Amino acid sequence: MAYIKDEELNAIREQADIVDIISDYLSLKQRGKNFLAVCPFHDDHSPSLVVSRERQMFNCFTCRTGGNVFTFIMKYENVSFVEAVKIVADKIGYNLNISDYTDYTTANKEDYDIMEFAKKFYLNNIFTEKGIAARKYLQNRGIDESIIREFNIGLSLDGKDTLYKLLNNKKYNSDKIADLGLINKVGLDIYDTFSNRIMIPIEDLKGQVVGFTGRIYNGEKDTAKYMNTKETEIFKKGHILFNYHNARPNIREEKCVIVVEGNMDAIKLSASGIKNVVALMGVALSKEQIDVLKKLKVPIILMLDNDQAGLDATVKNGDELQKYNLDIRVVRLTDAKDPDEYIRLKGVDALKDNIKHAIKYIDFKLEYLKNNKNLNNMEDLILYVREVISSLNSTDDLTKELVISKISKDYEIDAEILKQELNNSVPEKETNIKSPEAPRAPKPKPSKYKSAASKILFSMMCDPTYISIYKNRLGYFKEKKERMLASEIVYYNTVHNNINIADFLTFLIPQEELYNYVNEIISENNYTVVSLEEFNSCVDVVLKILKKDEIETLKNKIKQELDVNKKVELIAKLTELKKEV
Questions:
Q1: Which of 51, 131, 391, 394 is the most exposed place for a label (fewest CB within 10 A)?
Q2: Torsion of CA 485, 489, 492, 493, to 10 degrees
Q3: Domains of the chain
Q4: What angle do CA 331, 151, 336 make, to 5 degrees?
Q5: What number is the average pLDDT over the span 569-573?
């Protein structure tokens, strides 16, 4: 398998206007020759993301997130580089056969290879004679062969170390396999972690297998119903939503995402034709998972288990999501413990009708707060009203106004008193809402040298004319990352006989440190290429500072030099440098 060729990457990038692509995701407003939007990569309250049609770049001047059309899709959609290229190609009607290509080299590649091998091993087992009982169990739950293959559901055998022996034959290290949670070491003995369980692969947001859930199916009573892979370097539960990778295109099509509690619920819903569903990897949503849901820009329907734990989880997760001004809705299924059982008892059409009529979270919360209260009792009524008011602290102004109006009307309480109570209420815990891409502290004003170097490097990335001047007049920087970036710019221009900053950024994606440095430079220069005269002035500034540094180095050498003749030579050189400066 080969990388996507530079020529094809550049062809896709050139045909995909970044303004048109980003406008599918964000509301853009033109300001002069650029476009502004509220940045989706941090908690932005005023437009700070700038999109340049001229440069085919985007950059947030608050959190300094930036790049070209591919990197926007990578960050917004939480996908790999190749997946982002495919999405852009599809949007512009470019015929790209993604199966012919592979992504840039991935860190932890061996970990992913081992997990992929385990997935195929388990999947193969379920279609053998030993898998008949497991297949029958799944079929009784409405999961046929097509769904088994869609979710790569497998079976761990009851042998002591069957999987380990196969992995060992593949020359995988036993410590590595143990670290991934697939085997246990007890003294000199080695055991497969999973034995005689239906195996459900857990994929990360990119669709790579990172873990497993093993479920009993023979009615064993002396063992846990579910067993999950332990957290590893590649498997962080708080960073994953089960079935996200498969559900994402369906979420876009259905314009909503359904959140359920267990992965079997997600599988059963998908088997019933409801494919815009993801499952929690625990009881509570993490900030990372919320950030993934935020970026979908669709209503979020919480459909958790119909028990007290599920009710409490609905409230806890709903309250957390509400802080981000998201459209949250709730489905509570009566007469069934979970969506899987509801489908078996009442059918998929009844479930779809519930989803269609999902209630707004605030309406659900108003009813939830009435639980265990007699609202004809004054004390209970006061407690209820105060709990409602407290719940409004994290909602938008319109919701506050509507709820206050409703409470005022239902219980004949002056709306002004309720508003005063709202103004006086203080959340029990202040929440500093930040996405994983939280804004960084403002940088101090750059030095004269830093400013000059930044202008030189930005201009070089935009026009090969400046590269020639750099090579002829300068050819060197003080800082290592400046030298590395300059070297990559010169190399790219030599290979392609031209340079374009949007295409150059694609080239830099595998080099994270340099890629981030380029985005800093873009922020510092606001997409502006200096004139040739100013460029040469910047070169003069850098040369002068480099010579001053050389003078200091010579002074130190002169102090340390014991040979009189060599010292005289160094003094002469120092005198010449001082004249130049």
A1: 394
A2: -170
A3: 6-100 (3.90.580.10), 109-235 (3.90.980.10), 239-366 (3.40.1360.10), 369-424 (no CATH), 448-575 (1.10.860)
A4: 30
A5: 69
